[in-house]
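REQUEST FORM: STRUCTURE PREDICTION
Request ID: SP-0412
Submitted by: Lab K.M.
Chain count: 1
Length (residues): 560
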Amino acid sequence: MNRLWIVQRADREYVDYLSRVTGISPVVARILINRQLKTPDAVRNFMGAGLGGLPDPFELRGVKEAVEIINRAKSSGRTVLVHGDYDVDGISSTSIMVEALRRYGLQTGYFIPNRFDHGYGFHAAGVERALQAGAGLIITTDCGITAFETAELAAQKGLEVIITDHHEPTRDEEGNPLLPACGALINPKLHPGETELSGAGVAFKLAQALLGEDALACLDLAALGTLADLVPLSEENRIIAKTGMELIEKSGRPSLLALKEIAGCLGKPMGARSVCFALIPRLNAPGRIDDASFGVRFLLLPEQAAALEAARELDRINKERQRLEEAVHVQARAAVEREGFDGAIVASGEGWHKGVLGIVAARLSERHMRPSAVLTVEGDMAKGSARSIPQFDLYDGLSELKDMLVGFGGHRQAAGLRLKAGSVEDFRRAFSGLVRQRVSEFRATLKIDAEVTLKELSPNLVKELARLEPYGSGNPEPLLGAKRLQVLNARVVGKGHLKMKLREEKGHFPVDAIGFDMAGSLKQLEECAAVDAVFTPVMNEWEGGKTLQLNLKGIRPSAP
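STATUS: Completed
RESULT:
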């Protein structure tokens, strides 16, 4: 793909000042300045993010009222039902809430709606389950902000409701939020300026208000939801993700220890990439093709042997999910190639498995750099998921088209939607037109955090860059760029990877470099005198030794 390279600049004198005052290297100072961390205090807080930086949970609006309701429920001996959602953020936030309430001394059960039987959100089935369980209080996690009718139904049945959510609320024509009637409502989206927490992050805040420091044991679960839901990894989310991943690496929880073993991660450092690609897909699989309640049961298992057996079952379900996903992806790609696309992609077909539509939409969006919706047609209804590109706010866009939809909900980059099957073509045209109006450039970009020379690269710099982790939304892995490099011994290795050495023209020592899946660039490199490269420096371990290596993200002939 022809990507646009964008080099972010920073004032050299200020870089030197920030480097000197904070003790970080000029390269890292440039990266942080370009990420709007421009003061010594901001840099120190970011680099040293720890539990001391967690805000008082009672600062989050609605927490005080929720704790009062929970205390009344505890005093009167009422049972609580936690109502969650079927994705990883939903099952991790449910697990946090169940664990916290049980530790707090309340009889607590949970209900996760089935994607196929109930659909997303807080519906009448949850109220019915609460009544069956003899519960007097329902606490939602990761859902409920638009559940007007269900909240009213619960009140009619004598049930008290606490809603904890992080999704966008319904708004009136003036932009004011319309909220369900309930005993307490916690949602950072209602209060501009508050951290954009995940559902698990919101649940953790309420757990923290109940248990104090004892709630910190739930940070591993909060990190799972935070990383899975792609909220910005800054401020409080950074602390949750960073400290939570440390707990995951220590593997004190039997379920996560078992999952790491099955995923081949046991004994290895657990960065955000490992969590997102090895653990989260396996936890997500039951909610996509089976019953997400299995995920909550798994996360709360107290015994290692049972956890290991359940982890094997998660792995089996995930392999089935991969098979179903690939089948739908092949059909959706064929539909896109057959029908073409303009501003946006809308692919639809009969009988496509609903549980994998979001993943397929994400793959299409990444491949074609277009907002993408993938729909399965069942009778007179089309249901599916949409994923977006950074330049387009998907939730805002669907809000513009709400008259064409039976329902929708989600975030800036991901959403679910339903519409009449006969309206799919009209929606395709309207969605594409809206995207064309709002997006002028569909090329993917490589944002280069700092331009460097090869002399600035060292094992110490790699260690320093590791302090910027965890990487994710709002805090991507740093990309460095260097100009006019000589290519030495370029060749194809493995399954389409490009390996070489790079050296500065003035004869600095060569550095190993590898570009995964970049073998197609070999011929172009052989025909040019010098190249520009974008990369992340890492320490490559091989046969007991460690050497500096550049993991290439882009390479092109240097301008004359």
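NOTES: The longest strand covers residues 480-493.
Reviewed by: T.R.
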